[in-house]
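Need tokens for this chain, all 707 residues.
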Amino acid sequence: MNVIPVSERLNSLREMYYNSAVFKESLSYVKIRRQNLTYMRNYIKSQAPTSFLRRAYSEATVLENMNPVIEDNELIVGKSDFSPLTEDEQKEYKELLEKMKIAPQARGIGGHMVLDYPKLLSVGVEGLLSEVREYRSKLDLDNSPETDLEKDEFYEACEAELCALLVLQKNYADHARELSEKEASVTRKKELLEIADILDRVPAKPATTFREALQSIQFYHFSLWDGFHIGRVDEFLYPYYRADIDSGRLTREEAMELIDCFRLIAVGYMHPDTAICCLVGGRDKNGNLVENELTEMFLMSLEHIRTMHKVEFAVSKDTSDELLRYAIRLNAMGLTLPSILNDDVITEGMRMAGYTEEESHNWANTGCVEITPIGKSGIFVVSPYHNMPKMLLEAMKSGASSFGELLGKFGEILRSEVKKELKTINQYQMERSRNGKEVMRVSCLVDDCLKRGKSIDNGGALYNHIQPNFLGLANTADSLAVIDELVYKNGEYTLDRLCAILESDFDKEEELLSRILNKIPHYGTNDKRADSYVSTVTEIIKKACKGLKTYRGANLQPGCFSYLEHARHGLKTGATPDGRRASYPLSSGSSPTQGRETDGPTSALLSAVSWDHRSFLGGVAINVKFRPEQMTDEAEDRMLAFVKSFISLGGFQLQFNVASGEELKRAMAEPEKYRDLIVRVGGFSANFVKLTPEMQREIIDRNEHSM
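Here are the structure tokens for all 707 residues:
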């Protein structure tokens, strides 16, 4: 593998971004400070005839009036303006916030999708504008206002935002030239003029070079105010890269520096607990393996930039050992990236869910591990989180006379909870159909919004599933194993007695607790009986979701992973039959309960793949924890076999924490020395020292495996 060293430029940018207010103060990635002040000013005074247009024109005003931000050494530009408000502006901000309380509010998940960036690169913003205007010109407002007036409103809103984005582009180009005039360094002056020249063309025009493609995506992307993702970069960017290399316009080293700058800039405007994700590998729309120089280089950027912003690796049975080994080495460095996503399993799951053959290959993880189709998604991911252990505790109070009756009661409660929460989510979608949340330039790159003349919030996207997420899978399965043995098989305890013990948080029940933890088999030990309870729970989950419809007419796609919610919900959950104490975090994602993988990584892997992952497009995350020496040198061969087994056996997603418990404890005690220590939490990576003490301890408690 031809390793490309990190540039001096990258080190300086990295230091600057990590010392910015965004990172240090954990500023949110929304319209904040100056952007939101501008939005509220315009919204209050707007005379637009509809609230839909009022929002769009206010959004356009934000773009037109944003201060361009170009930092020293940046090659790829485009960031929010985080400059502080003056005292008078702060006073005005508070006054406007009060006035905005009367404005319609839209709730529900935003972002968490990949836009059709290949289309942006192909036609540019001007091409999108032409398409909008073409559709709008065919409307007949005189004779068909009942159908065409709403479409006209949508197209007008799209046009307002796209035109405003072009104003912002021009302002950035002008700013780059102004900076060049003041710049003393000849080298930096040249770079600023190159930035200005590129911004004269993109994103307005189609991209013609690799650098233009990266800049076009970044410029469109940073203005969207939410957690959008980039998609299959090694596939759609490769033609630009290859043309530049073949023509001599670009060297591999220069391309690497551009990739690093492109990926690092997100640290300058994204909240530290969120991440922008790129995906490499997998297959193209025709089912051909995607492996090229960009696959390797985007993976290499993980080593260079060392942030929580992700490059994930879609792996199939045909993926080369060379790239798999490199992915293992990157994780062994403690980067927690890339995680391994099973392209074969996810593609099968997409087909089972009704996606076309082409669409089944063109998926992306759009947040943690939620799977959505690229450029066609109006999907609400993680909507909402369901606390299964809490519902099992409720089912236990029913006094079920048999294990089957208890399972039936648990299924009824879960189904009832899913239906209840679905009504709320559907109400969010209904309200967003009246008072949307997504900005219109998102809909411009999602099929079939422009063709239908509808925004995403009005149902314009081709796919509109809701992906509820089910927490505590391992806790629930292990709890069922304990209940089945102690209550129904052996008759040693009644449900009432067990409930009383749990309500006391196992007070004076050390012997029982020891038996539960050490004698009764757990998920994660490759015990067939213990694993069977997981299959039982996942079947109950699927049944709880079956036949239910979203407001936009789609169905539910369950997931079993966690962001930080397993810790948050754990705080509100009493002790559970599996031996988990009250308020302790629930099990993380689809992994075995913390500390229960006592028979080594192979047994843990076999348990993890003992149930069918394919129906869980809402996300499945399996966490494993190793010491660095368990993934390097001669151990690398064993780790390669471990990963390939996970793929061949049908695992959905595999992610690594590679840090010793001792190191993590030192980081808790001396956080200032461990600023760069990154860990996998649920489906995402985070700076360890930025996590809560409860979350830090939960990660420390996870089993540390040896191969």
